[in-house]
Design a protein that fits this description.
The chain is built from five helices and four strands; from the N terminus they run ααβββαααβ. The protein is α+β, with helices and mostly antiparallel strands. The protein has two domains: 2-31; 47-149, Band 7 domain (Tetrahydropterin Synthase, Chain A). Strands 1, 2, 3 and 4 form a four-stranded antiparallel β-sheet that branches. A hairpin with a 2-residue loop joins strand 2 (56-62) and strand 3. The longest helix is centred in the N-terminal third of the chain and has 23 residues, at 2-24. It is elongated.
Amino acid sequence: MKKIIIIFAIFLMIAGASVGILKWFNIGPFSEPSSGKVQATKKAKGKIQMLDLDPITVHLVQDDKVISVIKMELRLKTRGADNLGIVTRLKPKLAHAYFSDLHAFIPRMLSAINRLDKKTLRERLVMLSKQVTRTKIIEDVIIKSISDEAPRK
């Protein structure tokens, strides 16, 4: 029993020393928040870059029949060449996330308001972009065009 108490006391001292070192050197959770703001402003000063995505086609199905085909052309807005490279690398992942979400979201929107609202779709796509990239690399998603076509028979 004494050995367990001694081991526990040593563990507490090591943990306390680790927290003290982190606080002393201002690293980890004890770093100053202003340094993050400086880095964010440096990134925000880059030139605006645009990246076109391949058209996203969503087929709406009801009673085992395609009732509508919605085609969207999107453009992503980011700042700086570094961010453009990151977004270009994540392009397939973003397109898949957009397609998966819109496949479920568009039918709900159409049943609720009977039309496609560009502003709501844009906000939804920006939110998805933030989830996929885990940062605010993509500033805006511009919907170039939305076309709603009846299926060909």
